[in-house]
Amino acid sequence: MKKIEAVIKPHKLDEVKEALHALGVTGMTAYDVKGFGRQKGHTEVYRGNEYTIDFVPKTKIELVVSDEMASKVEQAIVDAARTDKIGDGKVFTFDCVGAVRIRTGERGDDAL
Amino acid sequence: MPAIDTGSTAWMLVSAAMVLFMTPGLALFYAGMVRSKNVLSSTMHSLFAMGLVSVIWAVIGYTLAFGPDTGGVVGGLKFFGLDGVLGSVTGIGTSAIPTSVFAMYQGMFAIITVGLITGAVAERMKFKAYVIFAALWALLVYSPLAHWVWGGGWLAQLGALDFAGGTVVHIASAAAALAAAIVLGKRKGYGTEEMRPHNIPMSVLGAGILWFGWFGFNAGSALGSGQLAGSAFMATNLSAAAGMLMWSLAEVLTGHKPTVLGAASGAVAGLVGITPAAGFVGPMPALAIGAITGLACYFGLRLKSRFKFDDALDVVGVHGVGGTTGAILTGVFASVAVNSAGANGLLFGGGLALLGKQLVGVGATIAFSFTVSFIILKLLDATMGIRVDAETESNGLDVAEHAETGYEF
Hints:
With about 110 residues, chain A is α+β, with helices and mostly antiparallel strands. Chain A has a single domain (about 1-110), classed as Alpha-Beta Plaits, CATH 3.30.70.120. Chain A is built from two helices and six strands, in the order βαββββαβ. Chain A has helices spanning about 15-20, 70-80; strands at about 1-10, 30-35, 40-45, 50-55, 55-65, 90-95. Chain B has a single domain (about 5-400), classed as Ammonium transporter AmtB like domains (Ammonium transporter fold), CATH 1.10.3430.10. Chain B has a two-stranded antiparallel ribbon. The interface of A and B includes residues 45, 46 and 47 of A.
């Protein structure tokens, strides 16, 4: 099994979700994060005080898929999340050594 | 028993309630500007003042402020515990209202004045120390000052004009705020760490409530319903509007975007400026006062970086600069055509006479409030310490001082 983590632009979440749905992916987790890579931050001003904000709001998604699905899923995320503008994000793939469905006790690929 | 005017009484009852409402409005205004880990601490400063100062005012504050004059300095103890207040009447003719209403109305001013100071102490003051400071300040600074200006004391006798509290409320609280900022010291990380407002919508809601309540604050200071309340109401709205427009314009002209916090702050600055002038000036002068005060406060914010003190929420920059500007402009624009009980300012044939008296009022207020506040704070700091420890300051005051978290996500 492989765990895929992706940092994407928040407004791309729905598109990515639809693309993964089309592939038959059955579940994922998403949460709000902030981060930066090469994308510069921005300046905010409050009562005359300037603040350089390095961190930009992003969305992180996590999902675990079977080994066969991994590269298709990775590509689907890349295609759906790309805007060709700086700050599109990254996709990481890790080995996942265990998975259990809590309700039924199914393990491995059966848990996915 | 002399008759009361029911119209004026009704208006004053509503005004008193409106002024009280300004304190939770202030709570929202301030709390939105601190970091979320301190939202409750900030809110509690204003909320608790509503309880603490209400009681102090009733027991002894009112009498010290509005009791029969003693030496021009204080009111004495005739109305201790509001003795004799029920059933009596204040004012005459169409402005005759129950003394109880007058006493309550004035008490609401004391509450918010204390609340205003807390902008300077945000994010680092011990709550216990704040409570003791607030109680002593209401007693030793606010009540005497109210007496000097409104209770027949020496500033009133001098002829300085302060319709609704430019000195008693705004300059006094700003001077105290300056003393507090100095004694407390700067927040950890001030200048290097990011300290952004955590909830600007909250601050804007607060500013809106302040604007609304200010009609009670200024127009209610006519102490009756009629032409004077009407002109004060008008001046109040126009000054708020001009203040907002001028602040936004200043932001744009200095190369920035027009900010939401700036627009709200500009309105508040305009309202501060018109406070001493509201019942003495016409509508067009009110616009001028709002615009000039808005601009003055926009640049007044720079005082704290210039003089290196951490006035977290700009009490000095807005209420100090605004109150002073308004007091001076009252000496410029006041007209007896608007209020025969007032005087003529510089542009209305009065020469420099009124202006001089205004400056005395400003100077006396700053000196008195700053000095007494500084002494109280130094004593408290020496005995119980007024600043939280470094770890509490880093983690935020809400959990350590109040065992609560503002937000649960």
